[in-house]
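Lecture notes, continued. The same structure-token format from the folding unit now serves as the input rather than the output. Read the line below as a description of shape only.
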């Protein structure tokens, strides 16, 4: 007996105008537990295939209205039946050249009358197994295609939403910050000490919101592939180098937290060390890394920057090391995923942000043919390594 397909007997379409041959084939198939539809012409075969797609077609070549080869070509070029296995069975075209021609032009098997019952049934079962596998592959491919299209549509909608929200929020927020600055400057009159403290808290909140909105906008642009890169030779150390800019940007934050940013650890970061990258993107990455290091380092701790060149790989490594809370190895990759904050409840400082900084930083690094990796342990601090091509 033939194994059922999805809980039912396999369905075979037999196309043959010779009644005796059709009867012999049908009897063998039904005896093996298969269901059979019998037709005698190519037109009837087309009409049947328009109503139902069988699991196998047994097809004569010498039909009264059209050639079986024409029917075969139509089956194999129609998307709904292209994966349908077809067995040519002929009493007229029996030479090796006929067999070769049929197989070359799309037949999955080619037998001739008189049929050997065992060979015929074994061939039919083999084609049904192949057809079942092809059908399952086609089903999985179609399911994957639909899932991919749905995911793409959802991603585009999310990117559009983030971009629109970021733009719409930033405009009124800039106005709020501007008016707070004017009030703080005394444009609308002198402030009491309590009022000045309240204005200061509002300004800090506005700056924090601006940073969040910028992260969302940067993420939306990265996600949609709309970020442009200006790749050039970029100096890391020395006057005007990227690291000097980083120091100026994070000094106040480090001092307010009581964290030392150890300049002496910048070994190997001289003015002659250059990378092939976009300077603005390198600044964004390093500011994210250093401000994160400060945020997760307790007062009295330290943050260090160091550079190293890998001449064999023609890369430059910039390491940002802290003495902070550290991260478990199981979370080393998760922390680079969007909106993930594995340390969210471990310290008060970890409540800040929405978990986009590291995701943005790694995306920027990889877009510049570099990478961003982490080595850390709970309670022992963390080392983030930015790898970039050497100039």
């Amino acid at each position: 007996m033939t194994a059922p397909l999805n809980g039912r007997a396999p369905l075979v379409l037999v196309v043959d105008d010779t009644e005796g041959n059709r009867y012999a084939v049908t009897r063998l198939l039904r005896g093996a537990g298969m269901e059979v539809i019998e037709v005698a012409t190519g037109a009837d075969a087309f009409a049947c295939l328009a109503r139902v797609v069988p699991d196998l077609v047994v097809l004569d070549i010498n039909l009264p209205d059209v050639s079986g080869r024409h029917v075969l070509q139509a089956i194999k070029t129609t998307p709904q039946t292209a994966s349908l296995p077809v067995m040519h069975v002929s009493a007229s075209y029996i030479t090796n050249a006929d067999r070769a021609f049929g197989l070359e032009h799309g037949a999955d098997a080619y037998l001739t009358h008189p049929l050997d019952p065992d060979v015929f049934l074994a061939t039919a079962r083999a084609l049904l197994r192949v057809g079942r596998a092809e059908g399952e592959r086609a089903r999985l491919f179609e399911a994957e295609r639909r899932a991919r299209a749905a995911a793409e549509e959802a991603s585009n909608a999310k990117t559009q939403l983030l971009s629109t929200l970021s733009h719409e929020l930033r405009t009124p927020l800039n106005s709020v910050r501007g008016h707070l600055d004017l009030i703080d400057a005394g444009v609308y009159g002198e402030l009491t000490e309590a009022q000045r403290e309240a204005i200061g808290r509002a300004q800090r909140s506005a700056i924090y919101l601006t940073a969040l909105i910028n992260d969302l906008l940067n993420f939306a642009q990265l996600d949609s592939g709309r970020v442009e890169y200006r790749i050039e030779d970029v100096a890391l150390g020395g006057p005007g180098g990227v690291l000097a800019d980083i120091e100026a940007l994070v000094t106040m934050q480090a001092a307010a937290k009581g964290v030392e940013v150890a300049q002496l650890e910048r070994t190997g970061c001289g003015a002659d060390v250059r990378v092939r990258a976009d300077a603005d993107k390198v600044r964004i990455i390093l500011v994210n890394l250093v401000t994160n290091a400060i945020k997760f380092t307790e007062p009295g701790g330290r943050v260090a920057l160091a550079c190293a060149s890998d001449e064999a790989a023609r890369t430059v490594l910039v390491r940002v090391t802290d003495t902070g809370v550290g991260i478990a190895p199981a979370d080393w990759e998760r922390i680079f995923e969007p909106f993930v904050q594995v340390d969210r409840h471990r310290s008060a400082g970890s409540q800040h942000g929405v978990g986009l900084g590291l995701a943005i930083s790694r995306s920027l690094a990889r877009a510049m043919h570099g990478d961003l990796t982490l080595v850390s342990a709970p309670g022992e601090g963390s080392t983030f390594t930015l790898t970039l091509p050497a100039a």
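Point for the exam: The radius of gyration is 36 Å.
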